[in-house]
Inverse folding.
């Protein structure tokens, strides 16, 4: 049986690449000109969650779509339920001149750390 640590270690490179793909989206929900980026980010997440075997639904709203991804429901008294809540929109990068690096491009800081949206 593969331990979680071994699995993470063996899959580190694709996991890092997936994370880098996600943080490249300029999904600034407060800027109407970024609406397409917000929708693209939601679509990317939906496709990614499906590859993980999750059931995915995108609910359109007047604002940003709501994304719900879940495992197949198993009922029982000893079956735990887990909820993970997050958001996929980000803050505007302006003023651009304050950034040390491009705000939506991950940069390797050291062996195990990446910077994105690093301010001076």
């Amino acid at each position: 049986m593969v331990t979680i640590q071994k699995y993470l270690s063996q899959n580190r490179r694709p996991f890092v690449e997936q994370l880098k793909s996600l943080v490249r989206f300029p999904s600034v929900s407060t800027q109407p000109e970024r609406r397409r980026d917000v929708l693209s980010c939601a679509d990317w997440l939906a496709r990614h969650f499906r590859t993980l075997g999750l059931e995915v639904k995108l609910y359109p709203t007047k604002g940003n779509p709501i994304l719900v991804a879940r495992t197949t429901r198993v009922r029982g008294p000893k079956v735990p339920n887990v909820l993970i809540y997050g958001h996929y929109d980000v803050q505007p990068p302006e003023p651009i001149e304050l950034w040390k690096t491009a705000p939506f491009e991950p940069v390797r800081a050291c062996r195990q750390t990446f910077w994105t949206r690093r301010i001076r």
About this structure: The mean pLDDT is 86. The chain has three helices and four strands. The longest strand covers residues 55-59.
